[in-house]
Amino acid sequence: MLTLVRKNFGLKILALALAVSAWAYFHFSANPQITAHFDQQLSVPITVTGLRAGNVARFNEKEALVTIVAPRNGPAIKPDEVKAVLNLDEKTSGVYNIPIQIIAPPLDIRSFSPASITLEIAKLEERTVPVAVEYTGDRKNDIVVDAVVVSPRTTTLHGTANDLARVNAVRIAIPFLRDPTTYDAMTKPIATDLRGTEVAGVQVFPSAVRVRVRFVKSTTEKTAK
After folding, report:
1. What's the chain's average pLDDT?
2. Mind listing the domains of the chain with CATH numbers?
3. Residue 4 neighbours by CB under 8 Å, 6+ apart
4. pTM for this prediction
C-alpha cells in the first residue's frame, strides 16, 4: 500500500495542487461578494449650473480626474455617466472658490481632482463696432479698389467690460486681387486689439458679413497723358 502511495508521488501532489487551484478560481470568481476590483480613471469635463442669464464664468481647469473602484469582471464605466459640476446658484459677479460635485450612478468613488475651482463670474455687456476692411497680399500698381460694400456695416460685440475695453476694431481680411474683377464672399469679422491680435472671450455677431470689392485698372497713366 505504501508503495502505491509513493509511486509517482510528485505527479500526484502536482495534480492535487492544480485541482485545488481550479476549484478556488471558479468558486471565488463566481462569488459577487469577493469579485476582484480595480481602479478606473476618467477625465470628465467640468460644467457649471445655476449661472445667471447674462453672466459668464471663467476658469482655467477644463476637466476633472475621477478615480472609481470598478469590478474587474463588470463593464467599464463610461465617461458620460459621470459629471463634474460647479453649482453657481445665487452667485453674482465676483471671484469664488467652488467645490466640485460629482454626479454619477451608485459608484465607489475613490478620489477626484481638483476638489474645487477658483473662478470669476462677470456680467456680459454689448458694444456696437463698425467693420473695417483690411487687404492682404501684394498689390499691383495698375490695380485699385473702385468700390467696397460691407453688409452689415456694423457688428455687435458680447463680452465682459474688461475684454470689450481691449477691442480697438472689428476687422475683416480679404485678398488684394491682381486683376480687374469683383470679390464677393462671406467673411468672418474678428475683434482685435491695438496690435491687431484677436481678443479672446469676445463674441462677434453676426459671425460672418458679406463683403463686395470691385478692383479696376488704374486711370493714373491716362490722366497724366
Report:
1. 83
2. 36-123 (2.170.120.30), 125-224 (2.170.120.40)
3. none
4. 0.59
